[in-house]
Amino acid sequence: MYQARHTLSQPQLLSTLLLISDTDPDSGGQANALLKNLEEFNFVFDLLLLKRVLAQCDILSKTLQSSSVTYEIVKSVRNSTLEVLKSFRTDEFFSKLFNHSTEIADKCGFRAAQLPRQGKIPSRIGGGSKAPFESVEQYYKISIVWPVIDILSEEIEARLQENNLDVLNNLSKVLGGTDEDTASVKYVCKYYNLDNEHLLSELRCFYKMEESRNTTIQERADIFVQKSLKNVFPMLFKLFRLFFTIPMNSASCERSFSCLRRLKTYTRNKIGQERLSSLALLAIERSIEVNISKVIDDFNLSQKRRLNFV
């Protein structure tokens, strides 16, 4: 049986499971059960669906893990991810996914898609002889694809709600707006203890500047640096610094803890706090290029290394 199935160019995983089920008396039953599940159309369909959907969500996940990410970037990637997931919830996307899964299943000799056995709805509560799903495609679309996309979209919206980020949301409206949003200005002034009228005066003047029109928050921050507007708009400059320095995640902190676990091992149990902090700083900031020759020269000139015995 193994030789006959192996000649059909089955993937190595399926061939290995088939060999185990035919030759191993202890694990043969489990291997055979797993093999039957893998040779179903459901396995191919679910795998392709998760590959498409999770690959799209992976972009947002990597964005949130970045140590230099800002609120504006997170908001943009979040909205674009939700838009893409929304585009997946269409008949066109489902048809392509279902047809592709059917082609792969037929090529590998897997069992075709079929409706699961389901009890009929009693006629006394509005049912009858009509089945819950009229076709196989309708079952996979309503029971699998739509729920997966809806759950992911709801989780992204719930975890990254703008209402839970009031400070950053109001800062974004103040720094990226084109007119006076008095509610956001009042919120920011109250939160950071700023003068409301002074900030409004700076905003009115800044919004009228030619360079600030039709620009993003990042571009406006670049204008502040290029035009040296720090002393012209001190409150706005402070808000820009706050906006770009508020961390959007704890990824960098988690990496720091992981770094300490690698540095403070059992073989280094006598390492001191100062040395540990210095090694951790070198490991955490390893992306910064260091001129080793300059460091050696500075260390050599820092103090006299030779002892005078005369």
Percentage of residues in helical conformation:
55-70%
- Helices, by number, come to 15
Biggest beta-sheet profile: none
Oligomer: single chain
Q: N-to-C terminal Cα separation, in Å?
A: 92 Å
- SSE pattern: HHHHHHHHHHHHHHH
Category from helices, strands and their pairing: mainly alpha
Strand content: under 5%
C-alpha geometry: flat
Query: Unreliable runs, pLDDT <50, ≥5 residues?
Result: 1-9
Mean pLDDT: 80
**Radius of gyration from the alpha-carbon trace, in angstroms:** 31 Å
Count of individual beta strands? 0
InterPro entries: HATC_C_dom, IFN-induced_PKR_regulator, RNaseH-like_sf
Domain HAT C-terminal dimerisation: 230-286
Protein name: HAT C-terminal dimerisation domain-containing protein
GO molecular function: protein dimerization activity
Q: How would you describe the overall organization of this protein?
A:
This protein has helices at residues 2-6, 12-23, 28-38, 41-65, 71-88, 91-108, 136-159, 166-176, 182-192, 196-208, 217-227, 234-245, 251-263, 273-284, 292-302. The chain has 310 residues and is an all-alpha fold. Helix 8 (166-176) crosses helix 12 (234-245).
Name some characteristics of this structure.
RNaseH-like_sf, HATC_C_dom, 310 residues, 15 helices, mainly alpha, 67% helix
Question: How would the blueprint of this fold be written?
Answer:
Elements: H1 2-6, H2 12-23, H3 28-38, H4 41-65, H5 71-88, H6 91-108, H7 136-159, H8 166-176, H9 182-192, H10 196-208, H11 217-227, H12 234-245, H13 251-263, H14 273-284, H15 292-302
Domain HAT C-terminal dimerisation: 230-286
Organism: Macrosiphum euphorbiae (potato aphid)
GO molecular function: protein dimerization activity
